[in-house]
Amino acid sequence: MFGTGIIVFRETLEAAMIIGILAAATVDIAGRSRMLLGGIAAGIAGAIVVALLTSRIAEMAGGTGQDLLNAGILGFAVLMLAWHNIWMSRHGAELALQARQVGYAVRGGEKTLLTLFFVIALAVLREGSETVLFVYGSMAGSETSALQVLISGGLGLGAGALAGFLLYAGFLRIPTRWFFAATSGLILLLAAAMASQMARFLVQSDVLPDLGSPLWDTSGMVSNTSAAGVLLHALLGYEATPSGLQVVFYITTLIVILSAMRMLRNRKDSISSF
What we know:
mainly alpha
């Protein structure tokens, strides 16, 4: 549940930051509000289509097919989370600059007002589609109810939209470097947790061996259903009785993403030093 809120909050805030920057850069241009709202509506509509298609595909699968589908969606979600963190580690600071440049280009007449519509629609569609896949992946790997996901997602959406508005209005100052570093850490752990759950579905489908199940059993100290267990699962992907394959997938995901982030960050620093 907590993981869903974090994902929705971050994706919402990223979209809100882009919208806010473009809105501020084109504040006195006639027709700008219509294009902004139209782009938001188009992006949301596209994300809803992605959600409906994902739901429909899930309904068509059953038994082992459902486990394989869940494993596939979790795997895709892990790849997207990994790409998101790796890409943001190098290009996160450029997002605001690029959005501001588009706004100034529209203001100066270099680009048409319709550019606002497409940039915002694509931004909302991208963040919305990612959110759909991430949330479905987190639901597939847990016993979280649809109501809990709805509440957590709603809180994340509201908090992200509010933070985006406060940033736009100038009432809130968030060092973006610190913000993205903190949320990237949480998303890194979410990606590892999803990879672990993907391993569980692959074992259940007899696609891969379990490499020892359970590898350990800490349910006597912290069970999966206890308050502490639920919190640790949401934050760290905690499992009281994981299989060996789940542990391998979890650790491998952490190592691969962290190594790629460090490599790209070092590469960026070496290039900027010239």
